[in-house]
Each structure stands twice: as C-alpha cells, then as structure tokens.
C-alpha cells in the first residue's frame, strides 16, 4: 500500500473540485458544530429533568455518523468514476436514498461497538486492532447491496476483517500521518477542518478502493 500515492491522489482530486467538496461536507461541518455546542457544560442545566439535551446530542451524533458514512459512499464512487462532482448538497444526503443503507449503518455500528467493547475489556490494544479490522464493513455492505447480492451485517464485518488482513498497520500508519494536520485544526480553532476533513476522508475512501482493486486482481503462483 503506497501511502504517499493515496494521499497525493486524494489531494489532487480535492484541489480539482474543492468547491464541490466544501459544499458536500457542509452538513458534516454543521452537525459537528451543533454536537460540540450541545456537549458544552453550560448547555446542560440542573432543570433539564428529561435529559432532553442528552437525547438531542445522541440523535445529532447518530445523524452525523449516518451523513458521514453517506458522504464516504460518494467519495468512493468518485474514485471509481461512478459519480461526478456535481449536486454536492444532494449527494451529501446519499445515505437517505436507500433505507437499507441507514439500517445497515446503524446495525453494523451497534455490532461493531459491542465487539470492540468486549475486546477492550480484555486489553486496550486488541480493541484498537479490531476497530481497524472492522473499519471497512459499511462500504462492503453497501457494495453488496448495490450489486444486488446483499449480505448480512455480520458477514460485512467478517469480510472487513478478511479485507484488512495484512493491511491493519497500513491503516494505522495512514491515520498517524494526519497528526500534523489535526494539530493544525486545533491551532486554528477548527477552521483548518474545512480542508483537512475532506482530505482525510478522501484518502481513506481511496484506501478502500485500492484494497478492493487489489482483492479483485488474480493472484499468481
């Protein structure tokens, strides 16, 4: 896995269509902002008897997760030349174009959470390793649906584990390579996120596409 190539291709695509990606990510930026505001200490008051802010925060986090995965679907399609850099706001709601997408993301997310927590009970590191192993499950599930041969939620997680065999360290190092960018986000009080978030997401969409392409290539004895 060529990390530099993944990032270079992603950055090139981002620079070519930045206005598209900026608008595509607007719902994510706004939901991230709203979620952060609702988690501020002064937002929650002792008179909040029904814990409405907790419920609201939970719903916002769920919506943020759904929209984020849907946007990643769009990024994957762009790398595959199955989508064009047009109608960004419409494309940002891709997750809601298919009820199976929504249900799949929710159920797979719950199963992943349970598995990761169980691994974390043993040790922290195995939990991190498993979270990386399960990281491609949403995209595998969606690919199967789009090709007309849907798979179960557990199968998606299992196939993600197989796909990530030998590539978990690649994923981990690729994540670490963005530490400098994340520090820039902190230094700029989040402003740099307008560039870093699309760049980061594009790179990991490219990572998935590259893995699937490698998987499809016939092995030679």
TrEMBL record:
* Top-rank taxon: Bacteria
Mind listing the UniProt keywords for this protein, alphabetically?
A: Membrane, Transmembrane, Transmembrane helix
- Bilayer-crossing residues are 20-38, 58-79, 100-125, 171-196
Pfam families with a match to the protein in the record: DUF975 (PF06161)
According to UniProt, the name of this protein is: Integral membrane protein
């Amino acid at each position: 896995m060529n990390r530099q190539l993944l990032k270079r291709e992603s950055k090139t695509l981002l620079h070519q269509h930045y206005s598209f990606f900026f608008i595509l990510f607007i719902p994510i930026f706004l939901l991230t902002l709203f979620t952060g505001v609702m988690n501020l200490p002064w937002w929650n008051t002792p008179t909040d008897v029904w814990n409405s802010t907790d419920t609201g925060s939970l719903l916002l986090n769920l919506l943020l997760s759904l929209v984020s995965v849907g946007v990643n679907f769009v990024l994957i399609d762009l790398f595959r030349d199955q989508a064009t850099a047009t109608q960004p706001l419409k494309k940002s709601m891709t997750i809601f174009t298919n009820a199976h997408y929504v249900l799949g993301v929710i159920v797979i997310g719950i199963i992943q959470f349970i598995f990761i927590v169980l691994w974390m009970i043993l040790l922290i590191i195995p939990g991190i390793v498993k979270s990386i192993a399960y990281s491609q499950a949403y995209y595998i599930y969606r690919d199967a649906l789009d090709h007309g041969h849907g798979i179960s939620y557990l199968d998606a997680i299992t196939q993600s584990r197989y796909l990530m065999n030998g590539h978990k360290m690649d994923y981990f190092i690729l994540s670490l390579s963005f530490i400098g960018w994340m520090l820039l986000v902190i230094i700029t009080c989040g402003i740099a996120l307008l560039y870093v978030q699309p760049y980061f997401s594009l790179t990991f969409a490219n990572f998935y596409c590259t893995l699937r392409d490698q998987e499809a290539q016939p092995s030679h004895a």
